[in-house]
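Can't paste images in this forum, so I'm doing it all in text. The chain is below; anyone willing to post the predicted structure tokens underneath?
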Amino acid sequence: MWGEIMKKINGIKEKMKLDKIPMNLKKLKQKISNVINDSIKPLWNKILQWIKKSIGPVFHKVHESKIGKQTGKFFTSLGDKLQTVKEKIDFSDKKLYKNNMDYIIAGVVAVVMITSSAVYMKNNKTNYLIKESNKVVITDNKAEDFFYAGDYASAVNEYLSISKKDNGNPKWDIRIAEVYSVKGDFPNSKTYIQIAKNKIAKDKIKDGNLLNYMVFTEFMNKSYDDALKDGIEALKVAPKNKGLIRTMFTVYMANNQVDKAKDLIKGYPVNTKSAYDMTEYARMLMVINDWEQGLQVLKNAWEIDKDELKVYDVLAQISVYNRDLILEKVSNLSTKNPKDVVYKMWLAKIYSLTEETADQASKLLAEIKNEKIGKVEIKLIEVAVLQNTKQADKADALMSEIVQKNYKDYRVLHAASWHYYNKKDYAKALLYCKQSIVKNKDYPDNYGFLMPDILQAQGKSLEGEPYFRTGLMKEPYNYNIMLKLANYYWYTTQNTEKALEYFKFAEIVKPNDAEIKYNMACIYLNKQKQAEAVELLKQCIKLDDMTSKYHRTLGTIYMIQGKSAEGIKEIRYAYKADESDIQALNNAGCYYISVDGEIERGLTNFKAAVQGIKPTTDKYTSDTIKQNFEKAQKLNEQYKNSKGDETLKVPDFTLFY
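Text version of the structure:
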């Protein structure tokens, strides 16, 4: 840039015909150079910093009134500085003409300003956020455009066209295989995988990323044997490829080779200087239930970068799936290590996620605000606290401030997208999500969680599937993405077969997780496959005997099957495990009236269930319990008013699984 400025200065000298001015040009040139180095160059560096910190964000927010004020301030400051610069020239030198010197110095400064601004804007043209999401391009080619739009036929055709132009590069065959895989057309997917394999073998290709893509797609096609065989060979070629290692962990688990999966993770070539890489490693350790080491590595990652969003992603994802577990583990660490503020920050993050505990997060933040806890993440937690304590305007203002100061940071853009998604401002959420993807296309959470939720909210559910696949490709061990996808198929598209498929994928990674098995049991019940459901529920109880709903659901099935004794036994277990389980109380009421004919006892259970209804209880559960209670009350009144030989009709009560 400085060379360009000097060329401009020489051009100004020529234009002003300085060679015709009766002065010592050599001396003048030296003086100008001294002035530039001593005053103008440092001045302009300050101006550039000011532009970065003030003008850029101001234009980003498009507040014209502020621009006017800032511009006025800028030129006032510039005028003052120019006067100082001019005074640097020795005007006592008679060979120098004051009037000419005014023009010379003004010209030099103008050139410095114009040239530097041009170079700055050229180098930073992507710093400003585009305001319309449809103008933000997150793909690399038309085939990807079609893929993410759910137009799989066009995606395949476009990939074939690209492949032809690229001399049949096998990576395009793998991409076609991926498209067919997402579509559920496994035979065609396998065909193109084989085409790619043949090319890879023929050309002896050792591209670890390509091999990983192939193995992952085989795994998603449920070709576990092929994925294992090809994955083992790929590891020989690319033993340090982290993506391949992550995929092979899941492949080993799918093939019941748990020890090899664990050994692969423990030997993971983690970059101990990268907070992000350390966090990924920590999460994988937690997946294999090495919580002690996993949380220690997560702490080390936090120490490297206290604003690493991935650290908090891990906490948030685990919290969504098993909040009590992560709270217990982090709380215990905080109690044992009261001077370590890291655990208080983690607890603040977890508490900030719900309205019920947002106040606790606020208290923790106040307690540690003067500690070294980073600059960005604490602000993002504050936004969540404000949002969950009904201070939406303050939350919006703080989020705008954070984005204004960090609009090039994909992590901040991701957090902003979630903020606006939670406010149901889906257009703005989509914009920030796309901006985040542009800044970092390798960040899986945009694909596996955020974008599908936004698209679903906009009524574009089918377009979410390719994003799920991309997110899972980046983190094949992440059972949260698998569960998210399973629930997407279950509740959004009502495709229970696909839902069951992804619950089974999650079960591969977490084989001893009772909750995953419980969800599968519920799907089997929905498909009228009671035997399969009973078997899974027994497994759930074996893994976790103190969860009420496992007993309750099993008891309900037994009662429907006419096995009343087994049914009430499980319902009693359910109540013992959780006396506040209003659904278990409801089912007990059903049993005592319908089976034992004990109206008073049944009514007592229904009444207790009604009294246990909370504002957070879902409408169906609340309405069903109240209706059952009303039926029981009417039956009780009929019983009291009936004659001794009168037959009473027991109403149909609704049981909960």
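DSSP finds 32 helices and no strands in the chain. Residues 2-126 form one domain.
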